Amino acid sequence: MDEVLVAEDVRRSYGDTVAVDGVSLSLGAGEVFALVGPNGAGKTTLVRALTGTTDAAGRVELFGQSPTAIDRARIGLLPQDFTPHERLTATELVSYYAGLYDDARSVEDVLADVGLEEDSDTWYEELSGGQRRRACVATALINDPDLLVLDEPTTGIDPAGRRSLWRLLSGLADRGVTILVTTHYMEEAHRLADRVGLLADGSLVAVDSPEALVAEYGGQRTLTVGGTFDPSVAQTLDRPVEVGEDRLVVFDVDPAEIGGVVATLDGAGVEYDELAWSEPDLEDAYLELTGDAVGAVQGGAGRPAAVGGEQS
Ligand SMILES: Nc1ncnc2c1ncn2[C@@H]1O[C@H](COP(=O)(O)OP(=O)(O)OP(=O)(O)O)[C@@H](O)[C@H]1O
């Protein structure tokens, strides 16, 4: 794989605050890499360091050159805090950026790509939050870049718009464009990225495919059974379980095993109210890795994904 971006031991501090603490990373052509992490983890600072928009220690090369030496036409950058002049229409805004390059794409096409063809003559201040963000994304696409770096591109964009942007970005990646994206949406990282990097306190603590991260850190598939249970139910099932006040959690249950567990409970005359099977997702892996307990289900289990019927 051709290396488009190479970073070695990148560091950046603001006074006593260490924002990026020795990050090494390399991205290949056509790869989509999602950088995730809690607020203040250093994502924006890292993005800026990688694109030469802030000074940083360490080595960064884009297409084998320093970020400040590279032909800017090869890079599309959407900063997190990009705020265009509010009395520019979407067309005027993107046209301004088109004028910075010798060989820019058609403004009309790019606005259509981000779903703004109907609002191209609307002032930026009159666009909705999601439409504004789309207009900003368009400025990063106008030069048909080989490397696209988007800092929280879909913040404020509605689910349909977000999905359409994912399709657009996936299409670009299929054509060989390398994409580095930061996001707080785990579904976005999972659906879009070939690899996800989790940044915590300025360090990359895990880098892998979304599937591998979920498998390693997401926890187990579980069956949660609602009701009041005697602790002896653990012997009945002969499986790892956790008996809570109003529920029984059965760990490590594959979908094919649900029927067997339920049959065992029924056979032993155990009464229950409802069943919910869940499997871990990237958010579970994220919460496990960041140690952020908010919303996490005890025991590293995933969040309920499907609720079964009540016992008759
Ligand atoms: N210009 C600055 N001056 C001083 N400190 C800064 C500056 N920019 C960022 N920081 C600090 O560096 C750390 C990393 O910030 P950064 O914005 O890179 O995090 P982030 O992961 O992008 O956060 P968020 O998810 O909230 O956007 C934070 O502690 C932040 O307060």
UniProtKB/TrEMBL annotation:
Superkingdom: Archaea
Gene3D superfamilies: P-loop containing nucleotide triphosphate hydrolases (3.40.50.300)
UniProt cross-references to Pfam families, sorted A to Z: ABC_tran (PF00005)
Keyword Nucleotide-binding listed: yes
Presence of the UniProt keyword 4Fe-4S in the record: no
SMART domains tied to this protein: AAA (SM00382)
Coiled coil: none
Keywords: ATP-binding, Nucleotide-binding, Transport
Domain ABC transporter: 5-226
PROSITE patterns given in the database record: ABC_TRANSPORTER_1, ABC_TRANSPORTER_2
GO molecular function: ATP binding; ATP hydrolysis activity
Entry similarity comment: Belongs to the ABC transporter superfamily.
Entry protein name: ABC transporter related
Organism: Halomicrobium mukohataei (strain ATCC 700874 / DSM 12286 / JCM 9738 / NCIMB 13541)
Species classification: Archaea, Methanobacteriati, Methanobacteriota, Stenosarchaea group, Halobacteria
